[in-house]
Amino acid sequence: MAENSVPDLPPVNAEAAQKMWSEYLGSRGIPLADAPHHVAESFGDNPALADELLHEMLHGTKRATSSLASDYAYYNERVPQPEDHCIVCDGDGQPRAILRVLSVERASFFEVDAQFAAAEGEGDLSLEYWRAEHEKFWRRTQKSIGVDWKPEDTLQPGESWSWNALNFAGQWSMPTSRTKFVTPACGEECAGVGWKQRVSLSSKPGHERLNMSIVVINALSVPGEAGPELEKRFAARKHSVDSSPGFEGFKLLRPVNGGDKYFVYTQWATREDFENWRAQRADAAHAGNDAKKPVATGAELLEFEIVEL
Length: 309
Hints:
By secondary structure, the chain is of the alpha+beta class. The protein has helices spanning 14-28, 47-59, 69-74, 114-119, 127-143, 227-236, 271-286; strands at residues 38-42, 64-68, 85-89, 95-107, 163-173, 194-195, 197-198, 214-221, 247-253, 261-268, 298-305. It contains 7 helices and 11 strands. The longest helix is centred in the middle third of the chain and has 17 residues, at 127-143.
């Protein structure tokens, strides 16, 4: 979050966002007349940051976000409330997930604690990181509207210079991609002396999908002495698949109790997404981009559908 100028966010694709919202309401059996309040927006203040925060929400540990209370008054936006929803868009303005606000709390910049900083899911999850990066971010965003902001402004009771942190729960995403938030420009934030809001992201209630996700497990037979090398190779490219359409998660499972099989667990929105990624991997291998000698001596591909209970 540099303090210098950054590219502007593009407009939200309103038509796509409305379509996603309608499908979300339909999947939960909610009549339009009873629909909760919602907004559609990207997190952050530039395309790269919006994509980074979305990734942390869909694939990481981001479960909270924060904002300056003054922004709601400045942009004439509604202060977020529990049960509000936010259609989160990527850096291109395309809707990718829907969050439900669990709680909203008010606090000053200096009252943010380590637990909330960790819930924001950014950097090393420390309070020090949260303070350093948020101060830079808010100095930059406030400077863009002609305000010389400083953290001490949030200590003034009743003033608009404060921060809002929201905790969210219940992530719902389209079958294309899906993750703690740290941004002051999300429609799920509040106004006042400071707020916290929580949202939870889980595959249980509140994480319904239009299509069934699939899990693909590659069971690799790996000699005991080769295990560390296999883990080293996966660590070196652990984020290489993150941007693939439909990718939802990855785990490398190490054998215990004398077994020799490592499980490479990946989750995908659709089988087609997995097949497309596998084809791209094969093309890269044929082009000589993956020329290392295999560590595994054998492999078996297993495929499962996720049962929504």
